[in-house]
Amino acid sequence: SALAAAAQRNGQLTKPPGALGRLEEVGIWIGGWQGRAQPQIDHPQVVIFAGNHGVTAQGVSAFPSEVTVQMVANFRHGGAAINQLARLHGAEVEVVALELDRPTADFTQGPAMTEAETVAALQAGWNAVSPKADILVVGEMGIGNTTVAAALAAKLFGGTGMDWVGRGTGVDDAGLTRKAKAVDAGLARHADVTGPLQVLAALGGREVAAMAGAMARARVERVPVVLDGFIACAAAAVLHCATPGALDHAVAGHLSAEGAHARLLEKLGKQPLLSLGLRLGEGSGAAVALGVIRAAVVCQSGMATFAEAGVSGG
Ligand SMILES: Cc1cc2ncn([C@H]3O[C@H](COP(=O)(O)O)[C@@H](O)[C@H]3O)c2cc1C
Ligand SMILES: O=C(O)c1cccnc1
């Protein structure tokens, strides 16, 4: 009913029908999830989950694993890209570091996480969401996690390593081949694993599981979510494959430059709001898209109706 009320209000606003294009759809959608025809964004929440990955032993990143903990310190000191973008929206950056000194197991050798580790990471994500948030940006930091995301996507949707890997932090052709080989080895090792959550345990990582947990909690709290890039969408894909409609509360913030992001968005049935060639993660693309979402919300909520403004033709 909130969605219908928001759509009805949209139809009365002082503009030709549809003239605000996709902004209208976004404004109505936010109204539906917030349960009001005049949605607002006063309390955006930005949370970043960090984890380390055993699969980095396969030489899959252009950067060493220490960068994960170093970037966590940078987030806490306000020096990262996401800090600047969050500040633009009056949001703090909350950082949840998940056992950085205990990387997940190398998924080419065995399951990345035990069931208990997977549940703990899902719960960390679940617990991080503020029910008072009116929109949520979920970001990540974890050297090696574009390989993890590629492995998850390949296992959930089919295809080979080469179909799903990209250059991540900027690996060369040899690095790209090592990534594809690692994903293929993971697929072979975990060929008998079925079920999205079991796949998450076998091939995922703590920050990826935590992102999925946060997105699920947001759905329950009716908090709209802005999806970031390839890794965030791989986390979202676990929910999508587990439960139809699990991502109804999520909008794709942007199309990342990571090779297979377009294919992944297609699998999720999501159209990105922006395409700026970003390939950073941290929730940065989602935070940039938040500006567009705010534009949709101010129009939906602040415009006068034809009747209010005395404009003819509504
Ligand atoms: C300084 C720095 C800051 C980052 N912020 C996000 N990422 C991004 O890069 C990583 C994934 O790429 P790969 O799979 O190639 O390791 C993730 O940590 C992601 O968030 C960063 C990477 C670096 C080096
Ligand atoms: O799409 C992303 O989120 C991404 C791409 C490259 C590196 N880190 C993140």
TrEMBL record:
PANTHER family in alphabetical order: NICOTINATE-NUCLEOTIDE--DIMETHYLBENZIMIDAZOLE PHOSPHORIBOSYLTRANSFERASE
NCBIfam families documented for this protein: cobT_DBIPRT (TIGR03160), PRK00105.1 (NF000996)
Upper classification of the organism: Bacteria, Pseudomonadati, Pseudomonadota, Alphaproteobacteria, Rhodobacterales
Origin superkingdom: Bacteria
Record carries keyword Magnesium: no
GO terms under biological process: cobalamin biosynthetic process
HAMAP family: CobT
Functional pathway: Nucleoside biosynthesis; alpha-ribazole biosynthesis; alpha-ribazole from 5,6-dimethylbenzimidazole: step 1/2
Organism field: Fuscibacter oryzae
Alphabetic keyword roster: Cobalamin biosynthesis, Glycosyltransferase, Signal, Transferase
Name of the protein this chain belongs to: Nicotinate-nucleotide--dimethylbenzimidazole phosphoribosyltransferase
